[in-house]
Write a structure and sequence with these properties.
The complex is a heterodimer of chains A (about 270) and B (about 60). Chain A has about 270 residues and is mainly alpha-helical. Chain A has a single domain, classed as Up-down Bundle (Four Helix Bundle (Hemerythrin (Met), subunit A)). Chain A is about 75% helix and about 0% strand. Chain A has 8 helices and 2 strands, in the order H-H-H-H-H-H-H-E-E-H. In chain A, helix 4 packs antiparallel against helix 5, helix 4 packs antiparallel against helix 8 and helix 5 packs antiparallel against helix 7. Chain B is built from 1 helix and no strands. The chains are: A mainly alpha (about 270), B mainly alpha (about 60). At the A-B interface, helix 3, helix 4 and helix 8 of A face helix 1 of B.
């Protein structure tokens, strides 16, 4: 009961619109400032001893890939909130996040290809990492297409939520595709696939394997992209709430017109 | 600033990010303005939600 009253009190659409309207300009400004600082640090850092200045692509490619994956996790979490708790903002959150997640995943694919050509000698290979991220992008398109193909919004929300939860299996697959997975205590041992993509240099159990002069701008850019995503998501959620209010009022207007016609006919 | 022999790939990457993110921002801003305008028009016409009407359909 405590949880329900808390969400009703602080996470309902009306309160969300009031709070987000006040915070959004500040969040957007903070995202721009952090991103500008991160890119400044990246462009003034010494070039990589192997990759030269192409390391600059890392500052946009890696955060875009992280946000692309994290956004899908957010959609799955929101979908769970819709299906289990029927929270009024959960579906708004899931619907609003899909195009943004698709955009970041597309950027990860495009910048990855542009980084791959000078480093690997090819724009694309059908290996496990690249292909699984492409599948993630198609999953986003599938969520958007499924929702827009159904007129009944309640049914569309439920079916999209189920697809989002089924598709979440792609996230560990993306990670395991390069790293493999070894948990001896559980008897799990999945070898890494053969791939051109390098293993993670930052999120490792034995610490980052990247020089501090590149790690700092990368992390600052990652924080900047994350704040930017928050700003975009809040704006998209506000738009979706407005769209739903417009729809409700239009239906009310149609009802009113029909009631008026019925009254005239009765006279 | 010298971007080295692979400058075209670096510039293309940053251009792609700029185009996609600015496009996303523009879409969200225009969509928000459009929805707000539609809502304001409906409110100006006196349309209220069904739940906001009184008994017999009278608007409060």
């Amino acid at each position: 009961m405590q949880t329900q009253s808390f969400t009703q009190r602080y996470a309902n659409p009306t309160r969300f619109m009031a709070l987000s309207g006040a915070l959004l300009p500040w969040i957007a400004a903070l995202a721009a400032a952090v991103l500008a600082y991160g890119l400044y640090r990246g462009f003034t850092a010494p070039p990589d001893y192997q990759q030269g200045q192409t390391i600059l692509i890392m500052y946009i490619h890696v955060p875009a890939a992280w946000i692309g994956m994290a956004t899908y996790a957010l959609i799955a979490f929101s979908s769970f909130g819709l299906l289990v708790f029927r929270h009024p903002l959960a579906d708004v959150s899931a619907k609003a996040a899909a195009p943004i997640g698709a955009a970041f995943t597309l950027l990860a694919l495009v910048t990855g290809s542009l980084w791959g050509k000078p480093m690997w000698g090819t724009y694309w290979v059908w290996d496990a990492r690249l292909t699984s991220v492409l599948i993630l992008f198609f999953l986003y398109l599938g969520l958007i297409a499924l929702r827009s193909s159904l007129e009944d919004e309640t049914l569309a929300a439920k079916l999209t939520a189920v697809l989002a939860l089924v598709g979440v299996v792609i996230l560990p697959f993306i990670k395991i595709s390069v790293e493999g997975l070894d948990i001896p205590s559980l008897g799990i041992s999945i070898p890494a696939w053969n791939t051109l993509h390098q293993p993670s240099s930052v999120l490792r159990s034995d610490g980052p394997k990247i020089h501090i002069s590149q790690l700092v701008p990368l992390l600052v850019c990652a924080v900047g992209f994350t704040i930017l995503f928050v700003a975009l998501h809040i704006k998209a959620m506000r738009n979706e709430i407005l769209r739903r209010r417009v729809k409700v009022l239009r239906l009310a207007e149609v009802d009113r017109a029909r009631a008026g016609e019925a009254a005239v006919a009765a006279e | 600033m010298d971007l080295g022999p692979h400058a075209a790939f670096i510039i293309a990457s940053y251009a792609a990010v700029a185009v996609v993110l600015l496009g996303l921002v523009a879409w969200l801003v225009f969509d928000g303005a459009r929805q707000q305008r539609l809502l304001d028009d409906l409110n100006a016409r006196g349309t209220r939600r069904r739940s906001a009407r009184g008994p017999g359909g009278a608007q409060r």
